[in-house]
Amino acid sequence: MIFVLIFPILSACDVADPKENNKKYRTNVRTDVSDVILDELELGFKFFYETANSDEDSPGYGLIPDRFHASGLDGGVSGTVASIASVGYGLTSLPIGIENKWISREEGENRAYRTLITLDNLDRTHGFWFHFVEMKTGKRAWNSEVSIIDSAILANGILTVGRYFGGRVQKLAYEIYEEIEWDWYYDSAANKFYMGYDPKTGFSGYWNGYAEQLMIFVLAAGSPTYPVGVNAYNLMKLSSKLHNSTPYYGRFYSTYTGSLFTHQFSHAWIDFRKYYDQDGYNWFENSVHATEAAIAYAISLKDDYLGINENSWGMSASDGPQGYRGNYGSGPSEGNAHYVDGTVPAYGALASIVFKPEEAIRAAENYRTYDKFWSKYGFKDSYNLGYQNQGWFADDIIGIDKGISVLMIENYLSEMIWKIFMEIEYIQNGLKNLNFERVEA
């Protein structure tokens, strides 16, 4: 294998002149795409831009709701709680809005910079953020944990706008990233990252097997200030279950609940398509095969659940008729912990568009036939056609679910987020320090 860098890389200590950083990333755009996909992209971007706290005198400027009531009731800044992961997706969406000409570059740069100021001023623990914060004040909400995975998603968004805008945005973005103490959130004796941290009770749990935390290994390995090396990544693989190929899907590492988001989140930013680890394993192919398995699983249930079939698949953490469930998923799952009751989230298929595009687009077109599933910001979170023999449609849009849909759709159309993110030296260093190699076909 030969390691080849194909992108021009800025030194982490160099700051790009914003006038020289007007490179156009949205090139070679696919044009033969369903209008449903294009509508979801535009309306999804507007969700992040319009629901954010835009009061420049507010200490919560730029914060984005964890969820939005799609009827418009109590969906603005007042009375809502932000998710820092939602902010990470929202920051990443700014280049999408600019290069699609939905907002100006000046508007996007101002939103990015002022949001970074907010994030820099929020309460942080060794560089990490609380999972949920109040929209207006930025203060901790719901006694939430100091979250490594949600901080990682936010860090991805911070680095994305830093690389895209250059200048003052890049300078502040890189300073914020370098303050994150990844080694503090890591148990070197166990070779594992902790799962959560509470200021009163300390650390709890570990990230044991493969899941959406793949980004954490790369971000931590690329840190010039508080790095964590390859041992945590290697143990993760050893702790994960590799399912063999079947006639319906190729071999893949499953996740504990089989929730499809676990195979999507890291891939919204990191372009793993041509990167192989020291064992020659490719995580993009892993997600392709996990998506194939999810589709096959849905087809196997079509006689049991109204609304689960070859055009309605991708069960994943989402709202359901009885509230939010994190273990909605598809088999096979590593812990055999997936739960099914007929609920399907829109993003399960939408965010799989880079892995199985034809199947994802057909699912989106199917979902669009249900008027109750649509809103001013595109698809609502989820539905269950068989619930109590009358059907159920979610009222809310959940920020992280909308975010993964928006980013993956844009990557399918133009590869833009991948292009931006893979130019960042921290990310290239992280992959190199984890012994990944880029292999040209």
Highest-level CATH class: Mainly Alpha
CATH-assigned homologous superfamily: Glycoside hydrolase 144 (GH144)
Shape from CA axes? globular
Mean pLDDT: 94
E-strand count: 20
In the CATH hierarchy, the architecture is Alpha/alpha barrel
* Integer tally of domains: 1
Q: Which strand order do you get reading across the main beta sheet?
A: 6-7-8
Number of helices: 13
Helix content: 25-40%
For the record, give the distance between the C-alpha atoms at the N and C termini, rounded to a whole number. 10 Å
Radius of gyration: 20 Å
Q: What name does CATH use for the topology? A: Glycosyltransferase
How much of the residues is beta strand, in percent? 5-15%
The helix-and-strand class reads alpha+beta
Give the low-confidence spans: 1-11, 74-79
Sketch the major β-sheet.
Answer: 3 strands, antiparallel
